[in-house]
Design goal:
The strands form three sheets. Strands 7-2-8-1-14-13 form a six-stranded antiparallel beta sheet. With 311 residues, it is α+β, with helices and mostly antiparallel strands. Helix 5 packs across helix 6. 27% of the residues lie in helices and 30% in strands.
């Protein structure tokens, strides 16, 4: 089932952490297993925000030794960042296993991500000048409180509430997905891709990596592959509607834009509000109306539609 939502403020910043939390919490019934946020704040000059985890939440039940291992993994991450010429400007720890680093690094992001993820149990959730990707088990209010998202100010955001159907209930399989190895690109998705394994093997042969068995991750990696060539975001999204099989609606974000696409059957819902200062979209209309105190008009995008908005 699942639910997705997105919001973008034009020429302004807003309380996107709180707004997205309200939107996702209103769709809790669509996905009680996990919640994820991709929030885009004001970029820090010459710095990358890196969200990563060094264990799964359920790993903590393994006993005392896992905490020692987690500390060792984080220290090894620090060492590897520095060995690549990166400088850790700031480090925050949201949970025993989840971290936010601000790093000065101007090298190859693929090499950086691959080297860090070679540390046992470590997964980079996102890299970006503006993007921070947060996901964990629990509903939107629980995750937002755990990671301090109510105070997050930014330009745009998107999120996902998940009901696991074909992959594990863990952070690795939760949405959103970062479009490795590109800075600031992320995706959320509602639906099912029927050509997942064929497309995945095709992309893996090109050297692109997957961290889960969730079919939604394919969209992020697919778009990353297209963007590595000459395709614009709009071009890549139009091609996805033609080349990805199944029933799906997805939302994609970059450092300065938010887009949505529906498959040719339009079987998965999406409701859209477009105002002068703000655009909001969600799987259910209630998610949009909960953040606007005044009466609004919404529309349902048509089959095969692709839309992109820029801040």
């Amino acid at each position: 089932m699942c639910g997705i939502a997105g919001i973008i403020h034009r020429d302004a910043t807003g309380s996107i952490g709180r707004e997205l939390t309200l939107m996702l919490q209103s769709m809790k019934h669509r996905g009680p297993d996990s919640t994820g946020f991709a929030v885009y704040g004001v970029p820090h000059e010459d710095q990358l925000a890196i969200r990563f985890k060094v264990a799964e939440r359920e790993d903590l039940a393994a006993g005392f030794d896992i905490h020692r291992q987690i500390k060792q993994r984080r220290k090894e991450v620090d060492r590897r960042i520095q060995s690549l010429g990166g400088g850790i400007v700031a480090a925050e720890q949201a949970t025993d296993y989840a971290h936010l680093y601000r790093v000065k690094y101007d090298g190859d992001l693929r090499r950086f991500a691959d080297y860090i993820e070679d540390v046992e149990g470590t997964e980079i959730l996102s890299i970006g000048s503006a993007l921070e990707l947060i996901k964990d088990l629990g509903d939107a209010e629980q995750v937002a409180q755990q990671y301090g998202l109510d105070d997050f100010i930014g330009t745009h955001a998107m999120g996902h509430v998940r009901m696991a159907t074909e992959s594990d209930v863990d952070i690795c399989s939760a949405h959103p997905f970062w479009a490795y190895p590109f800075s600031d690109i992320s995706v959320v998705h509602n639906g099912q891709l029927t050509n997942y394994w064929g497309k995945r093997r095709e992309l893996e042969r090109k050297g692109l990596r997957f961290t889960s068995n969730c079919d939604s991750e394919l969209i992020a990696v697919y778009l990353a592959d297209k963007l590595s060539g000459d395709d614009s975001l709009e071009d890549a999204m139009h091609k996805s509607v033609q080349e990805l099989d199944g029933v799906f609606t997805y939302v994609v974000a970059t450092s300065d834009s938010l887009g949505m696409a529906k498959d040719q059957l339009a079987a998965k819902p999406m409701v859209l509000y477009e105002g002068e200062d703000c655009i909001a979209m969600a799987s259910e209309e209630v998610a949009i109306r909960c953040i606007f105190p005044h009466e609004i008009e919404t529309v349902d995008p048509y089959a095969g539609e692709v839309r992109v908005w820029r801040k």
